[in-house]
Amino acid sequence: MFTQFYNESIRKLIIGFGSLFNDINVERKDSDGNIKESIRVPLAYGPKEKFIRRIQESSSISDATHTQITLPRLGFDITGIQYDPSRKGNKLRKTKAVSTDGLISSYNYAEVPYNISLGLYSFSRNQNDNLQIIEQILPYFSPEFIVSMKVNTINNKIDVPIILNGVSTVEEYEGEFDSRRNLTSTFEFTAKTFIYGPVRTSKMILQSDIDIFGTSEAFDSADVTGAQDLRIGITGGFSGGYTSGAQIYGDYYYE
């Protein structure tokens, strides 16, 4: 029953989700309104706790040199996977694709609906950077954004709605005076996607041979003898041998 296969459906969804936030920039201006610094916000996959710990602790380049993680920064990860019975279809339904030569048919059974919960985390040092990141994300979700992806050779274009459920911001201001300020905004998303089974192949039926032996009550004739050989091709129609003087019953010939 269980065989090894890998459509990368979840992996491709994660890549598509991350690519949505790969070009977010933060600009810092002087008192005259001139742009003095433009920063492309780096993006990485990982849980929120990992980024918070890296922000709070300094990494060691050498025994004498210690650095802190640069801000602003974005991170995202999967927070849950739930089955969605409201989108369930017929389990025996097939999706098919035929090879270019028309001789091999590929298919898989109906996809299984799942809701994948995703979290996007924004880490910044000041409120202006944090608000810039939020405003560059919210307008595109009302409340969903459609991502199209190719899962396999059969499912070439799948539209997956990604829904923004909510945004929350936490400012860590408590602590000693020398502690670093940290603003964390959390975006909660739900991707209504599908998980696909293995791809199976089968050869196309190009011809069907039917042999009719002996008598048949369906012909309603006591004069039926011998056998007939009928060949039905893929174009419809049939061909077969019969002797002269044969009688016709429906689409069949008999003696």
Relevant terms:
STM4215-like; mainly beta; 6-stranded mixed beta sheet; 3 helices; 3-stranded antiparallel beta sheet; 255 residues; 2 domains
Number of helices: 3
Radius of gyration: 32 Å
Give the strand tally: 18
Query: How far is the N terminus from the C terminus?
Result: 50 Å
Structural class of the secondary elements?
mainly beta
Task: Report mean pLDDT, rounded to a whole number.
Answer: 76
Task: Briefly note the CATH topology name of the largest domain.
Answer: STM4215-like
Task: Please state the second-level CATH architecture of the largest domain.
Answer: 2-Layer Sandwich
Roughly what percent helix? Answer: 10-25%
Strand adjacency order, main sheet? 3-6-9-12-11-10
Low-pLDDT stretches are 218-222, 242-255
Q: Write out the CATH superfamily name of the largest domain.
A: Myoviridae tail sheath stabiliser
> Percent of residues in beta strands?
over 45%
| Strand and helix order | HEEEHEEEEEEHEEEEEEEEE
Main sheet, how many strands, which sense, barrel?
6 strands, mixed
CATH class bucket of the largest domain? Alpha Beta
Shape: elongated
Number of domains: 2
Give an overview in words.
It contains 3 helices and 18 strands. The protein is mainly beta and 255 residues long. It starts with 8 loop residues before the first helix and ends with a strand.
